[in-house]
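Whiteboard transcription, Tuesday session. T.W. wrote the structure tokens on the left side:
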């Protein structure tokens, strides 16, 4: 307890902390600095060696990529040859002699200078084959009986890279690199056969000779496709500690341990098929010079530590003295409640701190005043908003009282009209923002149409909306302008009983809500004028001074984006349909009124 009070008292100062920390941790900075410099030196050399190795690896990778691209190009040439496609479509039209001649002129060509020996086999959909080398029955079954072979034939434009070491070999039993590609009939987009284009692994191996160390070309399963070490061809590297990083990365360099020794692995990805080019180099052979340099650094570090100790003690004393004075003055200012500032004095650094502190105090006072003013303004706006809600709610309650008085006096027609008017007023007041469930919007429309029946007696409102759509999110009072236009501009001029249908459906990610009537419709010129007004953002015609379809169209776009809004369809004498396009979105429980 006594030691704790002593530490928090006279020893808990910047000067004493700097002094004690320097004495106690003198050895630690020395070791850290020593290791840091060695690591820095190693990293520099690693980067240089890595950069040089990556450049060499890139060139080899490029050559291998060109080699594999030639294989692909050769396969495409065979697959698009008109004689080959005709043979696969009409095998009976070719005699045995013609097939042998086609084998010599098309399949047995030397397609690239990269290849010393090629093996080309052609399969049709029935499993019949034509090959530049004898195809044993076992090899034939391994191809046509494989699941991947059947899957490829079912899809057009497929290709698969493989390395064949112990299986799927021709009579000479040489390891081969194989590209299997479907031959697709372009007009029908259906496969008519398969071409298997293979080259000797030895053709790939000669491109690896430009790299030092152990070099492997590895496929996606970790199998060595080609290597300067012939015994490693066909072996799996999946158990090696570095293979996971190689398989998941694109290109790079890592250091790992193997049999107690450190190795550097450089790797790159062959873009055409995702195979990995891997180079392993012993770490010690590269960094032997670094170990010799470390011994020469000891004397330099000892001198640096001595100078560091002297400078630290001097700085500790120079820093602590003016800061004590600053702390004393700041405490005095705190006791005054930030209503005054400190006088600028002392060394340059201390004076700069005092100036910064004075500016901070002024900003704090200003922020406090602004927060107080904003709070008062928000309270005043909240009071006004509550006050603004009194009148419409008072009017709604009054209408409900009159409605029940009408029912009591057996005046059902007036009571129904007041009930509908109350429903409209309640919906227009809004509870919880401008968004509402479709169910509530349809209730509002039913009240509105019920009220309009006092003027239009022969109106039938049909709501054809499935129950699962009732919680769809819509904008408040968006259907009323369309209903009103149907009554006034569509049904009333016709002089016939009116029918308004509200329906809904989902198309992909769009919710389509439609209001259609059996009114007089409109001419193509009038329909084009209305559509232009919606798209151009300008309200035209006699209804431009009222809040209507244009207003709802703008609200939908502001709420959901430019892909949504209103579409209008109409024919003269056939009625009008107004379609609302919204995103499919159900109202959450928190949003429900």
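and on the right, the sequence the group agreed on:
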């Amino acid at each position: 307890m006594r030691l704790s009070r002593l530490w928090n008292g006279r020893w808990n100062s910047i000067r004493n902390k700097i002094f004690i920390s320097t004495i106690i941790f003198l050895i630690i900075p020395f070791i850290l600095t020593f290791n840091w410099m060695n690591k820095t030196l190693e990293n520099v050399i690693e980067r240089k060696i890595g950069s040089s190795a990556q450049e060499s690896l890139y060139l080899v990778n490029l050559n291998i990529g060109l080699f594999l691209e030639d294989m692909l190009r050769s396969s495409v040439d065979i697959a698009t040859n008109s004689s080959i496609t005709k043979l696969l479509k009409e095998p009976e039209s070719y005699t045995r002699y013609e097939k042998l001649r086609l084998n010599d002129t098309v399949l047995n060509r030397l397609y690239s200078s990269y290849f010393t020996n090629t093996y080309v086999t052609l399969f049709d959909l029935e499993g019949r084959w034509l090959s530049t080398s004898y195809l044993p029955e076992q090899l034939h079954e391994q191809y046509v009986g494989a699941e991947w072979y059947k899957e490829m034939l079912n899809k057009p434009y497929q290709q698969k890279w493989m390395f064949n070491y112990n299986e799927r070999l021709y009579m000479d039993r040489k390891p081969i690199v194989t590209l299997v590609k479907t031959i697709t009939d372009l007009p029908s987009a259906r496969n008519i056969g398969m071409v298997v284009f293979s080259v000797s692994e030895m053709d790939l191996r000669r491109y690896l000779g430009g790299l030092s160390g152990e070099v492997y070309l590895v496929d996606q399963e970790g199998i060595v496709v080609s290597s300067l070490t012939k015994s490693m061809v066909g072996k799996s590297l999946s158990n090696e500690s570095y293979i996971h990083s190689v398989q998941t990365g694109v290109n790079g360099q890592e250091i790992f341990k193997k049999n107690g020794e450190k190795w550097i692995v450089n790797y790159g990805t062959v873009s055409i098929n995702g195979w990995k080019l891997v180079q392993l180099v012993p770490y010690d052979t590269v960094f032997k010079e670094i170990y010799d340099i470390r011994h020469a650094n000891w004397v330099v570090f000892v001198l640096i530590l001595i100078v560091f100790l002297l400078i630290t003690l001097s700085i500790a004393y120079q820093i602590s003295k003016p800061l004590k004075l600053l702390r004393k003055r700041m405490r005095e200012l705190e006791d005054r409640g930030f209503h005054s500032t400190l006088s600028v004095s002392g060394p340059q650094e201390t004076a700069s701190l005092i100036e910064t502190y004075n500016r901070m105090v002024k900003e704090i006072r200003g922020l406090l005043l602004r927060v107080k003013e904003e709070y008062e303004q928000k309270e005043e706006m909240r009071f006004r908003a509550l006050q603004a809600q009194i009148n419409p709610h008072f009017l709604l309650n009054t209408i409900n009282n009159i409605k029940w008085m009408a029912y009591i006096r057996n005046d059902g027609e007036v009571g129904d009209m007041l009930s509908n008017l109350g429903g409209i007023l309640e919906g227009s007041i809004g509870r919880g923002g401008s968004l509402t469930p479709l169910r509530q919007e349809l209730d509002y429309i039913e009240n509105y149409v019920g009220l309009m029946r006092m003027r239009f007696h022969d109106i039938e409102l049909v709501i054809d909306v499935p129950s699962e759509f009732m919680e769809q999110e819509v904008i408040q009072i968006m259907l009323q302008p369309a209903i009103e236009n149907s009554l006034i501009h569509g049904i009333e001029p016709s002089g016939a009983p009116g029918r308004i249908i509200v329906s809904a459906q989902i198309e992909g990610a769009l919710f389509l809500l439609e209001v259609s009537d059996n009114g007089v419709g409109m001419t193509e010129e009038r329909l084009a004028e209305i559509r232009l007004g919606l798209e151009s953002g300008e309200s035209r015609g006699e209804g431009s001074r009222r809040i209507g379809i244009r207003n709802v169209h703008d609200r939908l776009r502001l709420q959901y984006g430019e892909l949504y809004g209103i579409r209008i369809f109409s024919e003269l004498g056939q009625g009008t349909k107004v379609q609302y396009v919204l995103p499919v979105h159900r109202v959450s429980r928190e949003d429900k009124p």
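Someone added at the bottom: Residues 385-391, 539-547 have pLDDT under 50 and may be disordered.
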